[in-house]
Design brief:
Elements: H1 3-19, E1 32-33, E2 40-44, E3 49-53, H2 67-90, E4 94-104, H3 106-109, E5 120-131, H4 135-148, H5 150-157
Antiparallel strand pairs: 1-2, 2-3, 4-5
Helix pairs in contact: 1-2, 2-4
Length: about 170
């Protein structure tokens, strides 16, 4: 897809969202299944069924996905797609890699130390880019990628989150 094709696809959507801001609010969802066997959760993705389980640092055997890894993978995917869209829009040829790392203290997750945080305490996102763009263009590319990456902004923004439960039986 080139810049013209991207504008052709996104143009009508941008107009619609300007004219009707409410139509821009879309609720995304993910569903999981707790089947009662093992310490796992099956998550249906758009193309497959993924099974998440315990990380080896919490007693897992490493055969199931770790939800912490999945969070970092979502960050990499979103940042990569966003960077490619911004690069396309700017008319820049860019390839390379995206990496996310996060530091966890598993004492918090396992309840070993109530002072230890549960969750990532530090997250790092990096790009190794192959491009002929100049320094100013790359700076703009990264700035816009950071601004428009949904997952990155969600992590940085600490959104209001609710937990609900219903029971049957």
């Amino acid at each position: 897809m080139d810049a013209t094709q991207l504008r052709d696809v996104q143009g009508p959507l941008k107009k619609q969202y300007r004219d009707d801001p409410g139509s821009a609010v879309v609720t995304l969802h993910a569903d999981g299944e707790l089947d009662g066997t093992g310490v796992a959760c099956r998550v249906r993705t758009a193309t497959a069924l993924a099974e998440a389980g315990l990380h080896p640092a919490t007693g897992g055997d490493g055969t199931q996905l770790c939800s912490g890894d999945m969070l970092l993978e979502a960050l990499v995917a979103c940042a990569g797609v966003t960077l490619r869209a911004v690069a396309t829009s700017m008319g820049l040829e860019v390839s390379g890699t995206v990496r996310a790392e996060g530091d966890l203290d598993f004492r918090g997750t396992l309840g070993v130390d109530k002072e230890a945080p549960v969750g990532f305490r530090d997250v790092r996102l990096s790009f190794a880019l192959d491009t002929t763009a100049d320094e100013e263009q790359v700076a703009s590319l990264v700035k816009l990628t950071e601004r428009y990456c949904v997952v990155l902004q969600t992590i940085k923004g600490n959104p209001h989150t609710e937990v609900a439960v219903t029971t049957a039986g």
